[in-house]
């Protein structure tokens, strides 16, 4: 029931993505502007690297005390008049949210951007139950119209071109007309981002006011005050939570941090790593319903806290993944993500973080390709504000897949045969001597290059393999030269 | 076991022998009670006059307009000028805040001033701010009976009136000031808004566009410290 998984088809997804010209254009933006803005903003803050270390320290401290901080957080939410709902599985979270919506007879629900609601497949579920969810983050709104999942955790619609977005608005907005100039109705439509943003702003304005319930995510949960924190640029999350009668925060247990000083430190690295801003436009701390003398705000405040396997990661190789603050820097800087885009990964979290996290959440059998979708260039770990050892974790998953005999048998046999030879030097030398001599001989006939080789099409499909220039191995030549020098 | 108990049992299982360590509870209590600062960047740890200049420069770099006025009584006139400059009708929705209510709005008889929360028909709101944060040109505002949050998000133009003395250096300084003002966490407001520039989005092809859902423009009227500060 949760979001449709296509991770098992990574290879087909990826080759389709490589032939999509719109995607190529969009990926140029992510790899170009988004990656370079991070570098510029980090350069302007001399303490940036030291702040990353501070961030890691904060999160490690939290993970060593996570049960206690969660208890503190819960007590503070209750003291402010709010409620906390603990959910182990996506199903529990969906049912809890549905029951809350039903208690308000909700027909429309506005939503701020929340990856956890993607994780639990909330929109499709609410629709089935007769409740209309309306995404209000511009990117999420666009992909909701297109019936697509997000392709990036902070820019969900970055794979769409402006022309595609104009098409969607034309299809879905009854009063949509795109005048090029104010007062002008007909004429060729504009695809200027400014015009498109204004169109979405006007359509969504009414939706905020109609909604019975507003759902947001949370980037952080603060134990000191019971506040949930959202970090946005558009202001949609704030309209979502201050206009309806009920505010539901959907988040996950690893987001808890101790206090506002820790929030301050992490905010300094979050926006810089994500978009290269020093601060996102709106950082909002919310806790509890409107106070008795407040003039606005929701009458009810609920926090739905999802586990979904996170608690099982504590004390394992995967624990560092719980430090993730979902900034997206790893995908903005990943050559594989740039080539195939977010949808190819086939689940909520794409890019290196997805390659490391998804096998745990949807099963290694299904996500087995994802830890292989890496060149091991190490850039993701280099840019991760929380210094998560993403390549190490992907390597660990590869070992797990090997040990558990997941995936086709022949690559495993190949690796095992190679490992056996590597442990027996005489066999390794014999094997390489035969291979080099054979390739050298065959290469003479083929003009020194192989366009195709059996069992090596993964290499030769993209480029030729040059034939060895000598019929001897390196070791044999080395020995011979050493003897000649004597 | 219910879900809550099962989640906590798994967490404590993952912590292994650590889970039983009595020092952990003390460490958590201490970190919350004493809330020590982590490394704080040097940038805004400067004399107050320089913090004011830094705040202004940082805000202006985000397309915020900052209008410095010598005294509180000049505010209504300057806001009228702002409305005229942007071709806006002379109508304001103002936060029912003591400082703002005490301003001589009557000096501008053409100005239609109404107090209350933000409504979708409001074009321009005027609110106070709790603090300005020099480090990033950020405003700290919070919800209270005299400062409804909707005024910060619903109108197209958000005008903030504050005194120079409200400008602090760092985020930590502003949070500490808020703790001191509230006295106790029991009185923590429903929301605290940190606002850094006008609403924006880059969701269409990564092109930055202002005015996504919140205010298209953010304007700050900064009252000089020379005027009887608070």
Biggest beta sheet attributes of chain A: 6 strands, parallel
Q: What structural class do you assign from the helix and strand content of chain A? A: alpha/beta
Secondary structure: number of strands of chain B:
12
Indicate how many domains the architecture of chain A comprises: 3
Number of domains of chain B: 2
Strand order of the largest sheet of chain A: 1-10-7-4-2-3
Biggest sheet of chain B, strands in spatial order?
1-12-7-4-2-3
Unreliable stretches of chain B, pLDDT < 50, 5 or more residues?
Answer: none
Shape of chain A: elongated
Number of helices of chain B: 7
Report, as a whole number of angstroms, the end-to-end distance of chain B.
Answer: 55 Å
What gyration radius of chain A follows from the Cα positions, in whole Å? 26 Å
Report the sheet-strand fraction of chain B. Answer: 15-25%
Give an overview of the whole structure:
The complex is a heterodimer of chains A (486) and B (230). Helices cover 50% and strands 10% of the residues of chain A. Chain A has 486 residues and is of the alpha/beta class. Chain A folds into three domains: 1-44 and 337-407, no CATH class; 45-308, Rossmann fold (3-Layer(aba) Sandwich); 410-485, no CATH class. In chain A, strand 5 (220-222) and strand 6 (227-232) form a beta hairpin. In chain A, helix 2 packs across helix 12 (260-274), helix 3 packs across helix 12 and helix 9 (162-172) packs parallel to helix 10 (193-210). In chain A, 51% of the residues are buried. With 230 residues, chain B is of the alpha/beta class. Chain B is 30% helix and 22% strand. Chain B has helices spanning 3-15, 23-34, 48-61, 75-85, 98-101, 150-153, 171-182; strands at 65-69, 91-94, 112-115, 124-128, 131-133, 138-142, 157-163, 167-168, 191-195, 200-201, 209-210, 217-223. In chain B, the strands form three sheets. Chain B has a six-stranded parallel β-sheet with strand order 1-12-7-4-2-3. Chain B has a four-stranded mixed β-sheet with strand order 8-5-6-9. Chain B has a two-stranded antiparallel sheet with strand order 10-11. In chain B, strand 2, helix 5 (98-101) and strand 3 form a beta-alpha-beta unit. Chain B is elongated and about 70 Å long. The model of chain B has no long low-confidence stretch (mean pLDDT 95). At the A-B interface, helix 2, helix 3, helix 4, helix 8 and helix 10 of A face helix 1, helix 2, helix 6, helix 7 and strand 9 of B.
